[in-house]
Amino acid sequence: MKNKNNQKDQELKLLLPKKAPKAMELEPHQNNPTKTTLKAKTWDESKKMWEIAAPAIIATVAQFSIGVVTVAFVGHLGELELAAVSIVQNVLEGFVYGIMLGMGSALETLCGQAVGGGQYHMLGIYLQRSCIITLVTAIFLSPLYVFTSPILKLLRQKKEIAELAGKFARWVIPQLFAYAVNFPVQKFLQAQSKIWVMTVISVAALGFHAVLNWVLITKLEKGLVGAAIAENVSWWLVVLAQVVYVVCGCFRESWTGFSVAAFKSLLGFVKLSLASAVMLCLELWYYTIVILMVGWLKNPEIAVDAISICMNVELWILMITLGFNAAISVRVSNELGANNPKAAKFAVIVAVVTSTIFGIIFTIAVVATQDIFPKLFSSHEEVISETSKLAYFLAAAIFLNSIQPILHGVAVGAGWQVSVAMINVACYYAFGLPFGALLGYKLGLGVKGIWIGMLAGCLLQTVVLSINVLRTNWTKEALQADARIKSQATSNLAQNGSVGNGMITHSQEP
């Protein structure tokens, strides 16, 4: 009986539709190999990006937070002190920071592409050449610190604020020369993806800076003098530690010692440095002018304090985005230098998507804490209230700044500084600022109107840059990078003018 029943069961099974055994079933990725390949490529590129972005974000945030910590301590001294230090940081130091960062950013193009092309021996020469240029630039910028007070009065800033800001500016001149060395060293390290030591140094300096501020301002009651001393000491601690790391023998291929060659053929390097500086300065000065425009309103103290707090929050979050900026600059320059145009293009996509996700998170966080974050910077109810009212404008700026710096990083990695400088002029200075002035002054919207104009300029610039990146011929960019590397290896001279003129190429890829 059992045999008959088994025979019937077997016959029934033969009639039923056959099902593939589990071992024979295709895995999901086997059904769609393209999807799996894309997933693997995305994961691989994300790992490469985060290896650079994570330490760069921490280092950049830590270094920027040195100024934020100073503002937080000074804000409790009084409204006048906060306004004075805010103007120095956002106007004077913002102006100088842009020039120094821009001059140092020439290394991102040259060093990044040299690494991709295997020309490591040129990196040390580039670093020394960049430091020479930035230190000379710092000497020429020093008078701005000395004459800050009359300059601010000329720009119609309130007399009391201008005079106190002038004193603080003269006290922080040593910080200017720290900037001059800091940015070239940073770019040298970033191009080789050697950032973790720089990150540890920056975090340690930030902790030291917070303690030093507490000792000098809170305990010893040294006021603005104490704040200036703390900034100078902390910044030079960062710079000296980084320099020791570079010259101590950890970079045998790229650092072979000081060389007289660094003083040769400076003209070509200066041209690329100036192009980089103009591109970044036009970006950073835009925010500086916004602060000045707010200072021209009636009863500016509260308005300047409020927008300065918002700018500090915006710039602090922007420092996170600048980590992705550094990562995409390195990735694009390395891949173009290695003649991998498709990899460069894919790196751009991954970086933009990742940074935008972070931008959305921070946008939501600012709106959710609009009544809380102003209290970190001031204890005055009027300032807190006015800052809270600007939270939605701040949130919009943060979202745009999650995309825009990535496109700037692409530009630096590919060497498009001249094109981006022209786009900045059109979007910011021909459109954004006049529109903000119209809304703020003529239509009486005050701070909100000025900020709406700023946002409009940022939005227009982001759209234009996005279109340019989408239209880029990456194969042609890789060929230009190869030619630039060869010209450096043979002539030891930056040939930015003859090998790619810093302009974006728009023809479609074949």
UniProtKB/TrEMBL annotation:
<comment type="similarity">
    <text>Belongs to the multi antimicrobial extrusion (MATE) (TC 2.A.66.1) family.</text>
</comment>
<dbReference type="InterPro" id="IPR045069">
    <property type="entry name" value="MATE_euk"/>
</dbReference>
<feature type="transmembrane region" description="Helical">
    <location>
        <begin position="426"/>
        <end position="444"/>
    </location>
</feature>
<feature type="transmembrane region" description="Helical">
    <location>
        <begin position="390"/>
        <end position="414"/>
    </location>
</feature>
<feature type="transmembrane region" description="Helical">
    <location>
        <begin position="127"/>
        <end position="148"/>
    </location>
</feature>
<keyword id="KW-0812">Transmembrane</keyword>
<protein>
    <recommendedName>
        <fullName>Protein DETOXIFICATION</fullName>
    </recommendedName>
</protein>
<feature type="transmembrane region" description="Helical">
    <location>
        <begin position="233"/>
        <end position="251"/>
    </location>
</feature>
<feature type="transmembrane region" description="Helical">
    <location>
        <begin position="197"/>
        <end position="217"/>
    </location>
</feature>
<feature type="transmembrane region" description="Helical">
    <location>
        <begin position="52"/>
        <end position="75"/>
    </location>
</feature>
<dbReference type="GO" id="GO:0016020">
    <property type="term" value="C:membrane"/>
</dbReference>
<keyword id="KW-0472">Membrane</keyword>
<feature type="transmembrane region" description="Helical">
    <location>
        <begin position="272"/>
        <end position="295"/>
    </location>
</feature>
<keyword id="KW-1133">Transmembrane helix</keyword>
<feature type="transmembrane region" description="Helical">
    <location>
        <begin position="450"/>
        <end position="470"/>
    </location>
</feature>
<dbReference type="InterPro" id="IPR002528">
    <property type="entry name" value="MATE_fam"/>
</dbReference>
<dbReference type="Pfam" id="PF01554">
    <property type="entry name" value="MatE"/>
</dbReference>
<feature type="transmembrane region" description="Helical">
    <location>
        <begin position="346"/>
        <end position="370"/>
    </location>
</feature>
<feature type="transmembrane region" description="Helical">
    <location>
        <begin position="315"/>
        <end position="334"/>
    </location>
</feature>
